[in-house]
Amino acid sequence: MSYVDEVIELVVKKNPSEPEFHQAVKEVLESLRVVIEANEEQYRKDALLERLVEPERQIKFRVPWVDDKGQVQVNTGYRVQFNSAIGPYKGGLRLHPSVNIGIIKFLGFEQIFKNSLTGLPIGGGKGGSDFDPKGKSDREVMAFCQSFITELYRYIGADTDVPAGDIGTGAREIGYMYGQYKRLTGLYEGVLTGKGLSYGGSLARTQATGYGLLYLTQELLKINGKDINGMTAVVSGSGNVATYAMEKAQQLGVKVLTCSDSNGWVYDPEGIDVAAIKEIKEVKRARLTEYKNYRPNAEYHEGRGVWSIKADLALPCATQNELLLDDAKQLVANGVTAVCEGANMPTTLEATEYLQKNGVIFAPGKAANAGGVATSALEMSQNSERLSWTFEEVDAKLKGIMVNITHNMVNAAERYGMAGNYVAGANIAGFEKVVNAMNAQGIV
Ligand code: GLU
């Protein structure tokens, strides 16, 4: 049996009931097959892949807190410190009822390659909890965040592990966590990113993932001889990534037709009103059902359905496994040009294969959504030098990083005879740097 197949089998056996982690490992290792086969003897001897798929450290802890009725609630907290070969662990904290160790491991594994692709010195990690901030009062969210950090603080630090936001963790949560970390340690340091501007945050960090997605999409289309200006797009999600993806898309001349939340979706043939989305989601913390109050001509539908609308671009920006094989078939039937992932692993393996086989330009999340973590690394740089850069400076750096990622991904795929396979290109480019560093640092 080939080394790749052996390790995939091992991962499934050693980590039962973690289907998302299996999926992430399969996607990466399958596409690295050529690279691994070229070095199979050495990699086997060094157990390189076995080390790569085993997190350096996994922390799981109790998070007790008191709700507004005086009732004690107990959640589970996680931090998976996956790989520190090229820098301190870096990756977000997901707060969502679906969180379990398998989800955090899939996200942490993806993060290793994503962070490497940025070209910046950040290792891979991820964490979170099954706590659901939705519907909780500010005081309840604060109580949870303080309890979470009271346990996690001993494992993180500006030079060891730097968490950030993800689904359910935004500026409010990061603020409460930062305050508690400072109180416990006495350190005013860049231990978290996505901070508010008044206490060490970076300009453009809020916009970075969505803007970065569009910078990469624009460049990838250009490489394929197409102009983004004048295209239409279907977007899923309405959180931080989707909102700023829609904003930048519109700035680049794209008409955005849809967005969604976990209950339903909006179709606005005149183009989504991003200011309305910001008010509904960021200010009111409400649901998309409200969108009709702002735009009476728009349609609201319960359930899922954004991929049924005909458009040139599809930008999944909600969550994992939200674009299935049937959706891919529908998109291809509607003549989609490109699918670029704003979320982490939103497209299933079968859907990805179908899109690629049918000539759709497909950019995987670990390249396409890397702008968020890249700008987090820029926030770390600013914190270290105790300076703040202007919006224009950060945005220009972000754009440069996304353009670079695009070319590295395209070139890596070509180098291994897989031109146009950007999944392989992104994985290869990300893998090469991590493996070089792991080899140089010995068996650790
Ligand atoms: N959660 C984001 C991601 O998936 C950002 C992580 C970070 O900024 O550290 O990459």
Can you walk through the features of this model?
This protein has 444 residues and is of the alpha/beta class. 48% of the residues lie in helices and 16% in strands. It is built from 18 helices and 12 strands. It has helices at residues 3-14, 19-31, 33-38, 40-45, 48-52, 101-117, 138-152, 171-185, 205-223, 240-251, 274-283, 291-294, 325-333, 349-357, 365-368, 371-385, 391-415, 422-440, and strands spanning 57-66, 72-83, 89-95, 123-129, 161-164, 232-236, 255-260, 264-267, 299-302, 313-316, 338-340, 361-363. Strands 9-8-7-6-10-11-12 form a 7-stranded mixed beta sheet, with helices on both faces. Strand 7 (255-260) and strand 8 (264-267) form a beta hairpin. Helix 6 (101-117) crosses helix 18 (422-440). The two termini are 27 Å apart. The relative contact order is 0.12. Glutamic acid binds next to strand 3 and helix 16.
Gross morphology is globular
Widest beta sheet: strand line-up:
9-8-7-6-10-11-12
User: What is the percentage of strand-forming residues?
Assistant: 15-25%
Category by helix and strand content: alpha/beta
Summed up, the helix count is: 18
Radius of gyration: 21 Å
Largest sheet: 7 strands, mixed
Q: Regions with pLDDT < 50 over 5+ consecutive residues?
A: none
Q: How many angstroms separate the termini?
A: 27 Å
**Total beta strand runs:** 12
- Hetero groups: glutamic acid
Q: Percentage of helical residues?
A: 40-55%
User: Average pLDDT, to the nearest integer?
Assistant: 98
Order of helices and strands: HHHHHEEEHEHEHHEHEEHHEEHEHEHHHH
